């Protein structure tokens, strides 16, 4: 094996570990159970946003300066900072960090200690988070290196047992929009957000191995991404299949309860305990990393006016409060936020691959702001109150019934500005972000 192939495998496994989050394991089984015989299109939709988009996001930010802020600043610098703040808050105290605590409680504590107070647990959990965040130690990194293989081996064992000895047969659940359900469920992994924030780390790791040419870095990133995607597809696809064959289990089980019940049926109490411990510890390491990321980002964004330690403490306190909503309520709370943020990220990633053909920021502004407008109107109409005149117009757009009403306006308006620039020799340059 050549050195280049070894490096591709190393980076590929690193990408796999980055996206193989314990919190994400609760989504495919529930998706599969809801889809039944439509599990294949459901998991394809999930893989597009849960695996494909994060990998494209890493490539996109590598083309644009190394992080989401640099990519979004092609619209304008204020928008770049605004979107980066929104993503960090979502990955931090609003959704992702609280969900790690809630998932740990529901999968590792409640099944074995049902009377353990969730508020007391969350206080202990975030006390440990702060200990490691405020006084960094190599211990947590070493734990993380051990946990990923343990978690992976546990999941492969569960999936193999469920495939060789299915719990039941695929049933028709009556759902006919399984692909779009999987696509939007993939938003909940939040991996595309994480990729746009952490993409620079992967690119830096490739450069550190001695690769300096842009074309070669892109090639390694793509091929490593294929390695990671293959691994994630096996895990997510397998878990979705287990959910699809678990039609006999109650449909009203929470996501953590469903995967716990499936594991218990296949491997017994010992398997359930191993899964709970591995998931709980993996969630803790994820929470520590995200809390530190939030502290560093907002401290830097405020030019040091907000201290790193103060931000980390505030993040932990807010996360503790939200974590006691429980996993399913946190997911419900996150849905409208993600339905606004994700379409913007998808459009920005798509435009990054067309950037060399774009002459002005107007194309970015037109496509992104139209996406924001349609997404906000759609979310308002779905979760709060319909807006007279505007909501019916948005609901009448192509693909709106499938949740993709923003695509047509983004493409149309982006193309209009592109044609204007091309045929009128519009020369106003894009504003490039600099740190």
UniProtKB/TrEMBL annotation:
A Pfam family it matches: Branch_AA_trans
Keywords: Amino-acid transport, Cell membrane, Membrane, Transmembrane, Transmembrane helix, Transport
GO MF term (any one): L-valine transmembrane transporter activity
Transmembrane intervals: 7-27, 39-61, 82-100, 112-134, 146-164, 192-208, 220-244, 274-294, 306-327, 333-354, 366-387, 399-419
InterPro entries assigned: Brnchd-chn_aa_trnsp_Livcs (IPR004685)
Cellular compartments annotated: Cell membrane
Membrane topology: Multi-pass membrane protein
GO cellular component, one term: plasma membrane
Highest taxon, organism lineage: Bacteria
GO terms (BP aspect): isoleucine transport; L-leucine transport
Keyword Signal: no
Role this protein plays: Component of the transport system for branched-chain amino acids.
Protein family per UniProt: Belongs to the branched chain amino acid transporter family.
Name this protein carries in UniProt: Branched-chain amino acid transport system carrier protein
The organism's taxonomic lineage, starting at the top: Bacteria, Bacillati, Bacillota, Clostridia, Eubacteriales
């Amino acid at each position: 094996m050549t050195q280049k192939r070894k490096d591709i495998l190393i980076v590929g496994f690193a990408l796999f570990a980055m996206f193989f989050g314990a919190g994400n394991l609760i989504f495919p089984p529930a998706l599969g159970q809801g889809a039944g015989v439509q599990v294949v299109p459901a998991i394809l939709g999930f893989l597009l946003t849960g695996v494909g988009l994060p990998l494209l996001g890493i490539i996109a930010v590598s083309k644009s300066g190394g992080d989401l802020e640099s990519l979004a600043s092609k619209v304008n610098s204020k928008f770049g900072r605004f979107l980066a703040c929104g993503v960090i808050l979502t990955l931090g105290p609003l959704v992702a960090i609280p969900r790690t605590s809630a998932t740990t409680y529901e999968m590792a504590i409640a099944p074995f200690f049902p009377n353990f107070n969730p508020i007391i647990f969350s206080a202990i959990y975030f006390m440990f988070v702060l200990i490691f965040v405020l006084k960094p130690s190599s211990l947590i990194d070493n734990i993380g290196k051990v946990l990923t293989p343990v978690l992976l081996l546990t999941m492969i064992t569960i999936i193999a047992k469920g495939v060789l000895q299915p719990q039941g047969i695929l049933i028709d659940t009556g759902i006919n929009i399984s692909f779009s359900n999987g696509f939007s469920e993939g938003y909940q992994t939040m991996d595309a957000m994480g990729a746009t924030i952490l993409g620079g780390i992967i690119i830096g790791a490739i450069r550190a191995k001695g690769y300096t040419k842009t074309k070669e870095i892109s090639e390694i990133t793509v091929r490593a991404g294929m390695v990671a995607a293959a691994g994630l597809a096996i895990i997510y696809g397998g878990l979705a299949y287990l959910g699809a064959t678990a039609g006999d289990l109650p449909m009203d089980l929470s996501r953590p309860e469903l995967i716990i019940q499936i594991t218990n049926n296949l491997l017994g109490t010992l398997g359930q305990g191993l899964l709970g411990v591995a998931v709980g510890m993996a969630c803790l390491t994820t929470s520590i990393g995200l809390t530190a990321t939030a502290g560093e980002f907002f401290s830097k964004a405020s030019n040091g006016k907000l201290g790193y330690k103060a931000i980390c403490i505030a993040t932990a306190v807010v996360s503790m409060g939200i974590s006691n909503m429980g996993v399913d309520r946190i997911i419900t709370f996150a849905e409208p936020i993600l339905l606004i943020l994700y379409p913007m990220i998808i459009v920005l990633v798509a435009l990054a691959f067309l950037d060399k053909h774009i002459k002005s920021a107007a194309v970015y502004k037109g496509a992104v702001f139209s996406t924001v407008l349609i997404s906000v109107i759609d979310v308002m109409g779905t979760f709060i109150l319909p807006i007279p005149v505007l909501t019916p117009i948005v609901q009448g757009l192509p693909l709106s019934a499938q949740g993709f009403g923003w695509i047509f306006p983004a493409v149309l308006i982006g193309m209009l500005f592109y044609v204007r620039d091309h045929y009128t020799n519009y020369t106003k340059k894009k504003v490039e972000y600099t740190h």
